[in-house]
């Protein structure tokens, strides 16, 4: 039994005949008119089922049913033009509830939860009797409207505010970066990163059209290694070394490698973070006093402030190296050394430089909150 039956008046049928006979209407409007004319039961003609009408007009049966439904429930104009009557929605999230949702989203989550979720917020406002019931999809509008993502968290280096030692060290580094290129006094940045050595326990499935490569979640840990990185941003060159550990002696020997790479330089300015291994004392633990003092005299040490590692341009090179070379499972330190050396050669051949744009003048404006407030 048909749920919706089309019964056209003489006036409505004349209007539909006019639409069908004239070619000045949109194709969908003409199609809807044909559906209504063929489904009309008010005329003396055999009744055509929806399946037959759909087959003749090359449309789906659901399309025929939708047009009939619109005609029965909302009238001829809506059936022809697909313009439903204006709907009035009752919004459950008014200004007060939206303010409560924003406040909760920015606050601490309940005990036992790492962060707020939409479902958790929905349950919470019901528990607090702000509303009788509400769906998490309705709750979604408030954070989205205010560009809040309570479930997201970014790792960030947060510098101390109003710290004179921080800004002094920062401005010192920024002044060093303003120096022009000088082969006799190169500016070199240095950093290191630990890497896990990981072995596959099962063979990976290679990529195929329409399917990404697949790697089993199971792996075997084979220890760790350390990658030293030194780069001269203005010259587009870098020095790398892969070691088993990251001790004072390892750092001292890497410093010796840097000095050996600049045999004609009078003094090398070395920008690095202030780790306990990054000191002149490490040289005396690795070399005889005469050799340690001679090596120390080759360098000018410039330290980035604590929580200011973003000032070290060697971090940029390390991130590039990890993303291009080491972002995969490697199970031996020998392979790491081979891959890092190949990456360094290619990177040096490209003469990839770093165009540092952030200056002391920029810092005094954009990072004004970090500077101490001077009393009047």
Tell me, briefly, the overall form: elongated
Terminal residue distance: 89 Å
The number of helical segments is 15
- In the residues, how many domains can be counted? 3
Low-confidence sequence ranges: none
* CATH architecture term of the largest domain: 2-Layer Sandwich
In percent, how helical is the residue content?
40-55%
What is the typical, i.e. mean, pLDDT? 88
Strand order of the largest sheet: 3-2-1-4-5
Strand content: 5-15%
Give the total of beta strands. Answer: 5
Overall SS class: alpha/beta
Q: What would the CATH topology of the largest domain be? A: Nucleotidyltransferase, domain 5
Biggest beta sheet attributes: 5 strands, mixed
This entry's quaternary arrangement is single chain
Briefly summarize what is shown:
The chain is an alpha/beta fold and 376 residues long. It has helices at residues 10-21, 27-39, 50-57, 61-74, 76-81, 95-106, 118-127, 136-145, 164-177, 248-261, 280-286, 289-297, 314-326, 333-349, 360-366; strands at 187-200, 219-232, 237-243, 268-273, 299-304. The protein has a five-stranded mixed beta sheet with strand order 3-2-1-4-5.
